[in-house]
Amino acid sequence: MRKDVVRIIGKALDEAAGQGLIGEARPDIIVETPKKEEFGDFSTNVAMLLAPLEKKPPVEIARMLAGMIAKIPPVEKAVVAGPGFINIFLGKPFYRAVLEDILKKGEDFGRLDAGKGRRVQVEFVSANPTGPLHIGHGRNAAVGDALANVLEAAGYEVAREYYINDVGRQMQTLGESIRLRLLELEGEDVEFPEDFYRGEYVKDIARDYMQRYQPDYAGAPSFQDFGREAMLERIKKDLDDFGVRFDAWYSEKSLHDRGLVMDTIEELRRRGFIYESEGALWFRTTDFGDDKDRVLIKADKTMTYFASDIAYHRDKAERGFSAMVDVWGADHHGYEARIRALFKALGADDARLKIIFIQLVALLRKGVPVPMGKREGEFVTLRQVMDEVGRDACRFFFLMRKSDAHLDFDLELAKSAAPENPVYYVQYCHARIKSIMAFAREKKIEVPQTPGPAVFDGLNAEEIGIIKRLGAFEEVVERSAAAMEPHRITFYLMELAGLFHPYYNRNRVVTDDGNITAARLLLCDAVGNVVANGLRLLGVEAPSKM
Question: How would you write 284-345 as a 3-class SS string?
Answer without folding.
Answer: CHHHHCCCCCEEEECCCCCECHHHHHHHHHHHHHCCCCCEEEEEEEHHHHHHHHHHHHHHHH
